[in-house]
Specification:
This protein has two domains: 29-127, Ribonuclease Inhibitor (Leucine-rich repeat, LRR (right-handed beta-alpha superhelix), Alpha-Beta Horseshoe); 132-263, Ribonuclease Inhibitor (Leucine-rich repeat, LRR (right-handed beta-alpha superhelix)), CATH 3.80.10.10. The protein is built from four helices and 18 strands. The chain is elongated, with a radius of gyration of 21 Å. It has helices at 3-13, 15-21, 23-26, 236-239, and strands spanning 30-35, 40-44, 62-66, 73-74, 87-89, 96-97, 110-112, 119-120, 133-135, 142-143, 156-158, 165-166, 188-189, 202-204, 211-212, 225-229, 249-253, 259-262. The protein has 263 residues and is mostly beta strands. Residues 1-39 have low confidence and may be disordered. The protein has a five-stranded mixed beta sheet with strand order 1-2-3-5-7, with no helix packed on it. The chain has a four-stranded parallel beta sheet with strand order 10-12-13-15, with no helix packed on it.
C-alpha cells in the first residue's frame, strides 16, 4: 500500500473515522497479525513510508508493534494513550521521535532506541509508568524537557556520554530512580530536572557543568552525598530545595576535577 493511497483515503474519510475503525484499512496492511480477546500484535508492511500523526491514538487493543525499516520519524501523539502497548521495535532508520509520541503508554515495559535516533522531543515518554530501565543512544546530546516526566517506576537510565543538557523536568517525579551517572561533557541542568527523585542517594556533578537552575534536585531528600563544582556553593539551597544539606556529605570540586573543599 503506497503512502499516496494512505493520504488520499485519510483525507476522504476524515480523522475520526480513521482513528476509530479504519486503521487496518488505511495503514496497517500487515505482514503478520495475531489477535487475542484483548491484545493485538502488529508488524507494519515493509512498504510503508511513514506513520501519520495520531495514527494509533487511544488504540488501546495494541500491545506489540514492529515499526518497519524505512520509517525515519515517529510523529507526535502517534502512540498516545495506547494503554496496553508493552513493546515497540524501532528500526535503525528512525532519526527523530517527536514530542509526546508515546505519551501515557502506561504498560510500555521495553523500548530499544537505536543509535540512529539523534532527537527525542519533549514528553516523548511522559507517563510511561511501566518503564524500569532505559538506555539512551549515544547519538543523543540533549535530554529534552519532560522526556520521562512521571515515569514513576523508572529505576535506572544510562545517559549518552556526550549529553550537554538535561531539560526542564526531564525526570520529574521519577520516584524510584535509584542512581544516575551524569556524563562528563554535561553543561547544563535545567529547572526541576530531577524534581522529587526521592530515592537517589548519591549524585556526582561533573566539573564540565556551568549552569544548574533552581529546584534542579527539589525534594531529593534521599541524598546521602553530593559532589559538585565549587562555583555552585552559594546556590546549594536553591538547587537542592527541600533537602536537608546539613545531613549530607558534600564535596566541592574545581573545574579541573580536583577536590577543593569538603563540608
Amino acid at each position: 500500500m503506497t503512502s499516496e493511497l494512505i493520504v488520499s483515503l485519510f483525507d476522504l474519510v476524515g480523522k475520526e473515522e480513521f482513528r476509530r475503525g479504519m486503521i487496518d484499512l488505511l495503514f496497517v496492511k500487515v505482514d503478520k497479525e495475531e489477535e487475542t480477546d484483548t491484545h493485538k500484535n502488529i508488524q507494519l508492511t515493509h512498504n510503508a513510508d511513514y506513520i501519520l500523526k495520531n495514527a494509533f491514538w487511544t488504540y488501546s487493543i495494541l500491545s506489540y508493534i514492529i515499526i518497519p525499516s524505512g520509517i525515519t520519524t515517529i510523529y507526535k501523539f502517534t502512540f498516545e494513550y495506547c494503554n496496553n502497548l508493552i513493546h515497540v521495535t524501532i528500526p535503525n532508520t528512525v532519526t527523530h521521535i517527536e514530542e509526546y509520541a508515546f505519551f501515557h503508554c502506561v504498560s510500555l515495559e521495553n523500548i530499544s532506541i537505536p543509535n540512529s535516533v539523534t532527537t527525542i522531543e519533549s514528553g516523548a515518554f511522559e507517563y510511561c509508568n511501566s518503564l524500569t530501565h532505559v538506555i539512551l543512544p549515544e547519538s543523543i546530546t540533549v535530554i529534552s524537557n519532560g522526556i520521562f516526566w512521571c515515569c514513576y517506576n523508572l529505576e535506572s537510565i544510562i545517559l549518552p556520554r556526550y549529553t550537554t543538557e538535561i531539560g526542564i523536568g526531564a525526570f520529574w517525579c521519577c520516584e524510584k530512580l535509584l542512581s544516575i551517572e551524569l556524563p562528563p561533557f554535561l553543561r547544563k541542568i535545567c529547572v526541576d530536572a530531577f524534581y522529587n527523585c526521592m530515592q537517589i542517594e548519591n549524585i556526582i556533578i561533573p566539573p564540565s557543568v556551568i549552569d544548574i537552575e533552581r529546584d534542579a534536585f527539589y525534594n531529593c531528600f534521599g541524598l546521602l552525598s553530593i559532589t559538585i563544582p565549587l562555583c555552585f556553593k552559594d546556590n546549594m539551597n536553591d538547587i537542592f530545595k527541600n533537602v536537608d544539606l546539613t545531613k549530607i556529605d558534600i564535596i566541592y570540586t574545581s573545574n579541573s576535577n580536583s577536590n577543593t573543599n569538603t563540608s
